[in-house]
Amino acid sequence: MSALRLIVVGTDAAFAGAIREVISVQLPESVAETLDPAHLKSRPLADGLVIDGRTDAAQAAALAARLRAMGFAGALVVLSEGDTAAALAAAGAAQASPHELAGQLVAHLAEQLSLAGSEHSAQIMRARRLVAAGEIAMRFQHSLNNPLAGILAEAQLMQLDSLPPEQLAAVERIIGLCRRIIELGKSLDGMGERK
């Protein structure tokens, strides 16, 4: 199977770079490049296109319709806000929020590629599952850290009290276990971004 080839269509180089970064992190086996819309003269040789429609959503929707009319059957995702969903749906394209790239872009690409019957659908679905697992891990870490910090603080305060040796040993075990769990949580820190 060849690498998934995606093209980011837009004139804002910094934003296109951010899109390519999201793609490379979530789909490491893919190849993403940037193309100015003015250079898009014929049907592109790509599995999917991500069109920057932030400044002119209507023009982006028209570009998506033109690409479909030229016979482009790959994934089409337009990054825009506003009331272009109907026009994009008519063009066979998906709309994603430019403010939620990490959460929406790959999901829309996966949906579009599965509709197109792409050989890369399985790869993208696997990437979506890994991203979801990373998000769950991050939520779990956050939910665990708050009460754990409270338990650790209380145990450290108890450690300062004059306690009998067996109670002091129990408090030290609590502190040690809390620190172990905190370290385990830290190992999850970048999981959502890496996956």
For the structure shown, list the relevant keywords.
12% strand, 5-stranded parallel beta sheet, alpha/beta, 5 strands, 195 residues, Rossmann fold, disordered C terminus, single chain
Explain briefly what this protein structure is.
By secondary structure, this protein is an alpha/beta fold. The chain is 58% helix and 12% strand. The protein contains seven helices and five strands, in the order E-H-E-E-H-E-H-E-H-H-H-H.
Basic shape: elongated
Overall number of domains? 2
Give the oligomeric state: single chain
Radius of gyration: 24 Å
Estimate the helix proportion, in percent.
Answer: 55-70%
* Main sheet characteristics: 5 strands, parallel
Share in β-strands: 5-15%
Mean pLDDT: 82
Description of the molecule:
By secondary structure, the protein is α/β, with parallel strands linked by helices. It folds into two domains: 5-119, Rossmann fold (3-Layer(aba) Sandwich), CATH 3.40.50; 136-194. The chain is 58% helix and 12% strand. It has helices at residues 13-26, 57-69, 85-90, 101-115, 121-160, 165-186, 191-194; strands at residues 5-9, 31-35, 48-52, 75-79, 94-96. Mean pLDDT is 82; it is low at 191-195.
